[in-house]
Design a protein that fits this description.
Blueprint (H helix, E strand, L loop, with lengths): L1 E14 L2 E11 L17 H32 L2 H4 L14 E3 L6 E5 L3 E4 L6 E4 L3 E7 L7 E8 L7 E7 L3 H10 L4 E3 L6 H10 L1 H6 L8 H33 L3 H19 L2 H16 L46
Parallel strand pairs: 7-10
Antiparallel strand pairs: 1-2, 3-4, 4-5, 5-6, 7-8, 8-9
Keywords: Chromosome, Coiled coil, DNA damage, DNA repair, DNA replication, Nucleus, Transcription, Transcription regulation
GO biological process, one term: DNA replication
Subunit structure: Component of the FACT complex.
């Protein structure tokens, strides 16, 4: 965590061997250092409580020193010889900030009342709203997790500033902020190649204004609507032409043509009167005949030679009943009287 004051100058100055318009002074309030075993301390450790109190006192002292410096500078800027320069200190509005990649590293970008800044990472980003021509929000669409923001400056010879990989959850907040600043912004589904666009504008600015200016960024939606309307008109005209041709043909038909049409309609009605099962049966039979391959004539199988009729098995001869009694002697016949 650091406390800083940043100066964005009107003119360039030399800092070391570099020419710059941004000068920054900062102090690290809390050192990002974790001591070994520091996480094992108790919450009521007196040494840890004393260390936290020292950090808070140091942070408050640094913030107070910076605030005193800002107040003294504001007093100087309030003098008559500096009022015409319209100099003032501005504070970032962190509740309107969003994450993005202005250069190579993701950073937290915050707007102010007159600028859009990112002052922690190097190189820093400081854009005054007065030098912005338009803002184009690119890769905006359903299902997109991120989108990009392109800042086009009023100086068309200056390269645009791109802020990539902004979360889609920040889209509504950015739109609200742009509306409060009265900056014109557009939305597109694709990334644009801005160098040839800016070159075309600088080569013939009058033609650019005659062609509608920045309204070409809205061509994506208007073209689709125009194409849909034109295709709809063409389809209606085609239907009217077809109906006129049909009516002309019906007026110019002869008696013989009408008879042929009537007979053809009768045949269609006769086919329709058949049941669906019969039509399906005829269709299956026709398909079977067309798909069945031609076969060579086959002879019926030869019959086996005839056998002589087989005799039934011989039956055993009937024997007279045995008239012996149980003891084995013959029974006596009764005498006839």
């Amino acid at each position: 965590m650091i406390t800083l004051v940043h100066f964005h100058l009107h003119n360039h100055i030399m800092v070391g061997n570099k020419k710059t318009k941004d000068v920054q002074f900062y102090i690290e309030v809390i050192d990002v250092v974790q001591t070994i075993g520091g996480g094992k301390r108790s919450a009521y450790d007196p040494d840890e409580i004393e260390e936290e109190q020292r950090e808070r006192d140091r942070k408050n002292k640094i913030n107070t020193d910076f605030q005193n410096f800002v107040n003294r500078v504001n007093d100087v800027w309030g003098q008559p010889q500096f009022k015409a320069l319209d100099l003032e200190f501005d504070q970032p509005l962190r509740e309107l900030g969003f994450h993005g990649v202005p250069h190579k590293v993701s950073a937290f970008i915050v707007p102010t009342s007159s600028c859009l800044v990112e002052l922690i990472e190097t190189p820093c980003v400081v854009i005054t709203l007065s030098e912005i021509e338009i803002v184009n929000l690119e890769r905006v669409g359903l299902g997109q997790k991120n989108f990009d923001m392109t800042v086009v400056f009023k100086d068309f010879k200056r390269d645009v500033l791109r802020i990539d990989s902004i979360p889609s959850t920040s889209l509504d907040g950015i739109k609200e902020w742009l509306n409060t600043t009265d900056l014109k912004y557009y939305e597109s589904r694709l990334n644009l190649n801005w160098r040839p666009i800016l070159k075309t504008i600088t080569d013939d600015p009058e033609k650019f204004i005659e062609d509608g200016g920045w309204e070409f960024l809205n061509m994506e939606g208007s073209d689709d609507e125009d194409d849909d309307s034109e295709s709809l008109v063409e389809s209606e005209d085609d239907e009217e032409e077809d109906s006129e041709e049909d009516s002309e043909e019906e007026e110019g038909k002869t008696w013989e043509e009408l008879e042929r049409e009537a007979s053809y309609a009768d045949r269609e009605k006769g086919n329709d009167s058949d049941s669906e099962e019969e039509r399906k049966r005829r269709k299956i039979k026709a398909l079977g005949k067309s798909r069945e391959p031609a076969r060579a004539p086959t002879r019926p199988p030869a019959r086996p030679p005839a056998r002589p009729p087989s005799r039934p098995p011989a039956r055993p001869l009937a024997r007279p009943p045995d008239r012996r009694n149980v003891s084995g002697s013959l029974t006596k016949r009764p005498k006839l009287r």
